[in-house]
Amino acid sequence: MENKSLISQQIAALLEEPDMIAALSNVSACINMNYANLNWAGFYFVKNGELVLGPFQGKTACTHIGYSKGVCGTCWQTKKPQRIADVLSFHGHIACDSDSRSELCVPVIVNGEVIMEIDLDAPVKDRFRETEEKEMLEAAAEISAAYLKHSWKI
Fold first, then answer.
1. Which strands make up the sheet holding 102-110, listed edge to edge?
2. Span 79-112, pLDDT tens digits
3. pTM, two decimal places
């Protein structure tokens, strides 16, 4: 990808680490440090028919999310980013953190299947813009490539 954003370049460098948990832990820290006004930045892995909590920065979180449940489950079901301006108006929203007001969830797709998701929460409405969505889609592509390169397994 040409003209990658600065955060995408940083994430690509962090993904040189061959250990998946170590790499994604640093990626979540990178996102948390680069984006102001977040209260959660991390990953959910598709595992045994549900989303299971992965590396993250922020408050404690839901550990298991069902297919099509909440913003993350909808992202998994549709295989499309979910940029929600007001989570309280999202039917079926799961309130893992009662302070969260907006959310961005982006699928990481390998061989046509969602294998994990990048999830970002903010304590203010309408925090996420097209710019962050584009950057997280770039990050998802980098993570997908690293998953294949390093033969990661979930």
1. 64-66, 50-58, 40-47, 113-122, 102-110, 82-84
2. 999 999 999 888 777 767 678 899 999 999 999 9
3. 0.93
